[in-house]
């Protein structure tokens, strides 16, 4: 699912120079190696600093760019909760937040990386929109929907390979 979404995003990046992809030091884990290599001028690795990543993305959006933030869903929803709420949703900014490794799919990383609360937390924020594609095909299509959506959105992507449900 992450690869399908990233492929759809990379297709958009070839045509839209406003797109910026930010990650919290999760290039490999979030299937972003291809984007980092083919679009280095549109790629920002902020390090393990999710709160800063969301704040930077809000600033980029305020300046007319189109930022996509990538981190594990537990960290988008809890570690950067205040920035997501205040900087993105309260201000109606066009930041696309991609939460990966949802549920208990992080396995051996343990409960600190589990994301069971992300939908509940983010859905309670005014103006929030949450998309949860069900398979790789819908994840690829979700990249199109997210790109066209005029405001902030949270996309929840599973880490593990899933079968195609809707060809």
Can you walk me through this structure?
By secondary structure, the protein is an alpha/beta fold. It is 41% helix and 16% strand. It has helices at residues 2-15, 33-38, 50-62, 73-79, 81-89, 118-123, 136-148; strands at 19-23, 43-45, 66-72, 96-100, 130-131, 153-156. Strands 2-1-3-4-6-5 form a 6-stranded parallel beta sheet, with helices on both faces.
What are the SSEs and their pairings?
Elements: H1 2-15, E1 19-23, H2 33-38, E2 43-45, H3 50-62, E3 66-72, H4 73-79, H5 81-89, E4 96-100, H6 118-123, E5 130-131, H7 136-148, E6 153-156
Helix pairs in contact: 1-7, 3-5
Q: In which order are the strands of the major sheet placed? A: 2-1-3-4-6-5
Overall mean confidence score, pLDDT? 93
Number of helices: 7
| Order of secondary-structure elements | HEHEHEHHEHEHE
Strand content: 15-25%
Q: How widely separated are the two ends?
A: 14 Å
- Bulk shape: globular
Q: What class would the helix/strand composition place it in?
A: alpha/beta
Rg calculated over all Cα atoms: 14 Å
Can you count the beta strands? 6
Percent helix range: 40-55%
How can the largest sheet be summarized? Answer: 6 strands, parallel
Which segments are poorly predicted (pLDDT under 50) over 5 or more consecutive residues?
Answer: none
């Amino acid at each position: 699912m992450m690869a399908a979404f990233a492929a759809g995003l990379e297709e958009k990046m070839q045509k839209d120079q406003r797109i910026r992809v930010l990650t919290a030091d999760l290039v490999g884990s979030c299937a972003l190696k291809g984007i980092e290599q083919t679009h280095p001028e549109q790629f920002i690795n902020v390090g393990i600093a999710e709160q800063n990543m969301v704040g930077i993305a809000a600033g980029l959006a305020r300046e007319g760019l189109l930022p996509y933030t990538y981190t594990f869903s537990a960290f988008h929803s809890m570690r950067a909760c205040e920035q997501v709420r205040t900087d993105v949703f309260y201000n109606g900014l066009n930041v696309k937040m991609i939460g990966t490794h949802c549920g208990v799919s992080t396995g051996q990383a343990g409960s600190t990386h589990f994301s069971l609360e992300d939908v509940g937390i983010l859905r309670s924020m005014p103006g929030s929109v949450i998309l949860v594609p069900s398979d790789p095909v819908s994840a690829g299509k979700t990249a199109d929907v997210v790109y066209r959506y005029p405001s902030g959105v949270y996309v929840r992507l599973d880490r593990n390979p899933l079968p195609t449900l809707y060809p």
